[in-house]
Amino acid sequence: MKIAILGGTGNIGKGFALRWGQMHEIIIGSRDLEKAEAVAAEYNEVLEKYGHMATITGTDNRTAAEKADIIVVAIRYSQLGPVMEMIRPFIENKIIISVVVPMEKNMCYISPGAKHLTVPIESKEFNSEYFCFSMPEAGSAAQEIQKMLPDNAELVAAFHTVPAKKLADLEMELDYDIGVCGNSMYSKEIVFGLVNDISNMRPLDVGPLETAAMIESLTPLLINVAARNEMKDISLKFI
C-alpha cells in the first residue's frame, strides 16, 4: 500500500515511516518540501542499516495525499483546518487515519498547606503544569475531521497512545494495545492490519467514531502520569 504521513517529519511520523516502511511504500508529507525530502532520505538510510530496502519519498502534504491510498494525519491540532482544506480535493475514496489530539498545557496553583502534599513546599504557592484534553465543539478532533471530508472518504481514529520515541526505536518490541474507532468495519480492518504490521502490537475495536474523544483524551493522561511518576514514554495494555 501507498501510505502518506502528513506531518511525517515529526516524532510520531518518523516511527510510522520506519515501522511501515519495511513493507509498504511511504510518502512523507510536510509543509516544507525540502525538509520532507531530506527526512525521507534519512529514514531510508536507517532502514538500510537494518537490511531493509525501503521506498520512502518526501513531498508536500497535498502531493502526498494525492499519491497515497491511505493518509495518516499526524499534524498538530492547530494546523488541522488549513491542511484538511488543502487536501480535500485529493482524498476521495481513501482511508484517513487521524492521530490528532487537541490538548493544551495548563497550570495549577496548590497552597503549601495542602494536606495531600508529601514534600515540603517553601514558596507561597506550588506551580504545577499539566496537559488536558481540549474538547473541540464537534466532540473530538476525529469528528471535526469527519466534517471536512468528502462523503466517500472513510475516517478511522487510532494510534493516540503510542510513544513516539519508542515507535521510532527499531530495537524495541512494542507490547501495546491500540484503540481503533470508526464507522466502517472495512476501513477499521485495514487499520487493524497496519497495527499488526508492527510486531507485538494488538488492535482493539473501541467503537464508532463518536468514541474518538475517549481515546484522544488518553494522550494527555499518559503524559501527566509519566511526568509525575518519573516514567518515560508509557503506553497502554489491557489485561
From TrEMBL:
List the GO molecular function terms.
Answer: cupric reductase (NADH) activity; ferric-chelate reductase (NADPH) activity
Instruction: Name the Gene Ontology biological process terms.
Output: copper ion import
| Matches recorded under InterPro entries | NAD(P)-bd_dom_sf, P5C_Rdtase_cat_N, STEAP_metalloreductase
Q: Which UniProt keywords apply?
A: Oxidoreductase
**Domain Pyrroline-5-carboxylate reductase catalytic N-terminal, first and last residues per copy:** 2-102
Can the keyword Coiled coil be found in this entry's annotation? no
Which Gene Ontology cellular component terms are annotated?
plasma membrane
Which Gene3D superfamilies does the UniProt record give? NAD(P)-binding Rossmann-like Domain (3.40.50.720)
Q: Does the keyword Oxidoreductase apply?
A: yes
Q: Which PANTHER family match?
A: DUDULIN-RELATED, F420-DEPENDENT NADP REDUCTASE
Q: What is this protein called?
A: NAD(P)-binding domain-containing protein
